[in-house]
Amino acid sequence: MKRILFFTIILSLFHLFCYGQDVNKQAIKIDTLGKEKKIQVMALPVVFYTPETEFGVGGGALFFFKNIKDVINLRESSLLITGIYTSKKQLIVNIKPEFYLIKGRLYIDADFKYKLFPNSFWGIGNNMPDSLRESYNMKTFYVHIALLKRVSGATRFGLEYIYEKHIITETLEGGQLAADTIPGSSGAIISGLGLIFKHDSRDNVFSPNEGTFLQFKGRYVSKLLGGTHSYNKFEVDFRKYFPIGKDDVLAMQVFTMSAFGDVPFQDMAWFGGGIRGRGYYNGRYIDNQMYSLQLEYRIRLTKKFGIAVFGSGGEVASKTNEFFRNFHASFGAEFVSNP
Asked: How far apart, in Å, are the Cα atoms of 137 and each of 88, 117, 180?
């Protein structure tokens, strides 16, 4: 194993992705639509530590709209608003609405994000040595809006619009980004359209105990749409959840990404971070192709606390025939607090 991720303390926010429970019982209810309460609010204070952020604090709120739901699986529309600031002076503000229209026949999934994010860069490739590490600072404006139509109870198909503006504000003198030899090193505007196929039979979107998630995305980015680069990008995300006993869950994920064309490094496959390649710095390995594997066993220790033990790994490459030459693996655990 190349890296080991030791216990990461993540309070309140990240439990949403680790444990299944009836969030309605934990929410703070607010009556804004009459006698019957229609909106529930959950406060989300956050304290965490990751290699790329070091210590971070923040918070936000998760709103559930009980009268705007999918009538088939009874999922409620939601609005997540969060803000995070780290000891490395990184700032992330995120607004993520998910709304079911016409009783769930239409679904809007959007993501609005502002990031001021000092970060590290090693170059493009699966074998970049630690000695090439350089620092840079980037400001990002991020808008993704998808509209999906229900094909069957758990399956949807639709369109996505993508707009991202990445502004490089600081680079290392004499480094790879300063030399402007890396696509996107002088900044990038990503503007494109995409197709999405999604099958989601999970019992809970935020904290699944069982079910299947399968999503395919195909993206066309072009200068004709106002961007600075033109390329195609494809993603497949498969996740499966198995309940073990009363409270424990076994979860698995397989993720692949392929991009072709003039791809800025900001939209290449990034291996590392809290989502794919845990235990590695976010973006430690970057290239046009990637696969990642993850297996996780989630254990509830008490009513309030639990632990998620995981193993993960993967690779990046410029072409798929270059895979399976240097597999990057990690294992570890996350200690979590339930509300």
From this structure: 11, 6, 15
